[in-house]
Every structure is written in C-alpha cells, then in structure tokens.
Amino acid sequence: MGLKGIQAYKKGSLKQDLSTADPHKITLMLMQGALEKMAMAKGSIERKEFESKALHLSKATSILVNLRDTIDLEMKSEVGENLYALYDYMVRRLTDANIQNSLKIMDEVINLMLPIKNAWAEIPESAKQEAYEAQRQKRQAV
Questions:
Q1: What is the chain's mean pLDDT, rounded?
Q2: Closest by CA position to 26, among listed 10, 15, 11, 39
Q3: Model-level pTM?
Q4: Is the per-residue pLDDT at 18 higher than 60?
Q5: Cα angle vertex 62, ends 56, 51, to 5°?
Q6: Is 76 exposed, middle or buried (0-12, 13-18, 19+ CB in 10 A)?
Q7: CATH assignment at residue 73
Q8: What is the model's pLDDT at position 92?
C-alpha cells in the first residue's frame, strides 16, 4: 500500500513539474528519465527479471525515439544531424541489449547518454532564451 502511495505522489509531482517546465527543462527531464529506465533495465538484467527488463527498455527506447524525432533537421545543423544519428544508434543498441541481455551494451548506451544530458544541463540561460526567440520568430514567419 505504501509503495502505491509513493508512486502516486511521484506521478503527481512529475505532472506539476511538467506543467511549469520550459522546453529545455522538459528535454532534460526526458533525458534523466531515459537514464533512469536504462538503470532499472540493467538491474532487471542482473536479477534475471526479463519481463521487467523489457518494460524498462521499452520506456527508455520510447524516450530516445521522442528525443530523436523532436530534433529540427530542417535547420541543416551538423550538431542536430549528429545528435539524431546518435539517438538512432542508441535505440538500435537498446534493442540489441534487450535481445542479448547485455550489461555491456547497457553501459555503452548509458555512457553515450550521460555527456549529452550533462551538456544539456549546462546550457547557459542566455543561450536558451536566444533559442526560444529564434523558434518564436520562425513560427511567426510561417
């Protein structure tokens, strides 16, 4: 009973955080969520809880696909194209980890994701505001 209460509290807290978050914060929350699901899948592999592993990897994969598919490739940015390819690679590797029950592959993907998340967290406020303004102007032009 206590665990359900904690889960409900976490879910409510997450909804509140999302309702007040800017796009940068939402992306950071998604990255953190992907890392958490990968860590949970890794623990499931270690415990040989394969149903749980599959569930966590499915959620991590869905988050990575969402992050990949929200990259604006129309801007023809090398960084955007490289990030898209990296997310795509991580999705494929999570599929491999799921099939092979591989902790090594899980570590590989986690070690690819961590620097992206850490760099994202370090983006200065001025750069975020500049990006939001550019997006707003782009929408108005359409």
A1: 87
A2: 15
A3: 0.79
A4: no
A5: 25
A6: exposed
A7: 1.20.120.340
A8: 98
What is the distance, to the nearest Å, from the Cα of residue 53 to the centroid of all Cα atoms in its chain? 17
Residue 1 lies in a domain: no
- Determine the residue type at 79: V
- The range of the structural domain enclosing residue 38 comes to 12-141
Whether 83 and 71 have beta carbons less than 8 Å apart is answered as: yes
Average pLDDT in the 130-135 region?
A: 74
Residue 54: count other Cβ atoms within 10 Å of its Cβ: 13
Domain count within the chain: 1
Mean pLDDT on 63-74:
92
User: Is residue 5 one of the residues assigned to a domain?
Assistant: no
**Cβ neighbours of residue 42 under 8 Å, at least 6 residues apart?**
103, 106, 107, 110
The pLDDT of residue 23 is: 84
Write the CA distances from 35 to 16, 48, 120, integer angstroms: 21, 20, 14
Q: What is the pLDDT of residue 125?
A: 82
Q: Does the residue 19 lie in any domain?
A: yes
Does residue 6 lie in a domain region? no
